[in-house]
Design brief:
InterPro entries: MeTrfase_7, MeTrfase_capping, SAM-dependent_MTases_sf. One of its GO terms (biological process) is methylation. Keywords: Magnesium, Metal-binding, Methyltransferase, Transferase. This is S-adenosylmethionine-dependent methyltransferase. The chain has 12 helices and 7 strands. By secondary structure, it is of the alpha/beta class. It has a domain of about 250 residues: Vaccinia Virus protein VP39 (Rossmann fold). Strands 3-2-1-4-5-7-6 form a 7-stranded mixed beta sheet, sandwiched between helices. The relative contact order is 0.16.
Length: about 350
């Protein structure tokens, strides 16, 4: 499989992911207690540890450069420890933990590992590669999670860039507001990608192991143009058209570019999981990723920066650094012009929380 998505900005500079991932941290804080609940209810830690020489292996799929990945790992470990202590209250022996940090080969693993917590209670390893492929030997992972990563496709659908295709997405950079043919092409690509993701995890997880997914989503039946991120992508496309008209690049460059992102509805995700057949769905629900947000207008500049550190490499590779910088510079004004509409959207439940368990 050709992977055309790119890892977020590395390093520790102004537009690095490691310095600009506070919003993602807030998104994940919404589901921390939910993950703990599912571990307590569903994960037989005593059985898993006993069968693996008291070693619990955990994988973060799409870890980026920190610091959120370290917080996620520690929270999962604490949850598993608590479950083991409740199952085996009279034992002095506890499992050891091995955490695998996975991301694309283009990820800045140097920054990731130089910032590893010194007082960590686990062994760490890096695993470069796409999570749409196999990453680990068969039946060796006990707990895997992918947070805010699975909505990035392995590639944009090829048919949306073919001039003779009914799904040709002329003048747009995403399926937001596009024709049904374009939306369907994205949905098909998502189904294929997540199918491969689940096939790989089904091979790697031990029976009874747990897989947690947190990703961008959209309520069943709601057009993506009605959620905040859809409005964001629409603004990006409008700005790029303006820049092309100003002579910075040819407009055909827009026709040949489509963001490899798709926010699935819960219904779509359920169908993909059921088609795979190797996992039971223990929990699936939509959450509000920013429940404490009071005023979106004041946070728009920070929101754009957080989007930029993730998507900068994707835009820069296609349009170049100058055009990409100009687009993000103008994005603040475009979103502020839409702030009254955005104010009605930020309370929407647009984050999908899924807990799957590998069938015995």
């Amino acid at each position: 499989m050709v992977i055309k998505a790119l890892a977020p900005n590395g390093g520790t500079g102004e537009f690095s992911y490691s310095k600009n991932s506070y919003f993602q941290k807030q998104n994940l804080s919404v589901v921390e207690s939910k993950i703990e609940e599912e571990i307590q209810k569903k994960l037989d830690v005593n059985k898993l540890a006993s069968a693996s020489n008291m070693i619990i292996r955990i994988a973060d799929l799409g870890c980026a450069t920190g610091p959120n990945t370290f917080m996620n790992a520690q929270n999962v470990i604490e949850g598993i420890k608590h479950k083991y202590q409740s199952q085996c209250p009279n034992t002095e022996t506890e499992p050891e933990f091995h955490v695998f940090f996975n991301d694309l080969p283009s990820n800045d693993f140097n920054t990731l590992f130089t910032s590893l917590p010194q007082d960590r209670s686990y062994f760490a390893a890096g695993v470069p590669g796409s999570f749409y492929n196999r990453l680990f030997p068969q039946s060796c992972i006990h707990f895997a999670y992918s947070t805010l990563a699975l909505h990035f496709l392995s590639k944009s659908p090829e048919v949306v860039q073919e001039r003779n295709s009914p799904a040709w997405n002329k003048g747009r950079i995403h399926h937001t507001g596009a024709s049904k043919e374009v939306v369907d092409a994205y949905a098909t690509q998502f189904g294929e990608d997540v199918g491969k993701f689940l096939d790989a995890r089904a091979m790697e997880l031990v029976p009874g192991g747990m897989l947690v997914i947190v990703m961008s989503s959209v309520p069943n039946g709601m057009p993506y143009s009605e959620v905040a991120s859809g409005m964001l992508f629409d603004c990006m496309g409008s700005i790029l058209i303006d820049l092309s008209k100003e002579g910075l690049f040819d407009e055909s460059e827009i026709d040949s570019f489509n963001l490899p992102c798709y926010a699935s509805s819960p219904e779509e995700m359920r169908k993909v999981v059921e088609r795979n057949g190797k996992f039971s769905i223990e929990r699936m629900e939509l959450t509000n990723p920013m429940p404490l947000l009071k005023n979106i207008q004041t946070l728009i500049p920070d929101w754009i920066t957080h989007v930029r550190v993730v998507m900068d490499p994707i835009f820069s590779r296609h349009f170049g650094n100058q055009v990409t910088h100009q687009m993000f510079q103008r994005l603040t004004k475009h979103l502020l012009d839409k702030v009254q509409v955005l104010e009605t959207k930020y309370r929407d439940k647009t984050q999908l929380f899924v807990v799957l368990q590998r069938k015995e």
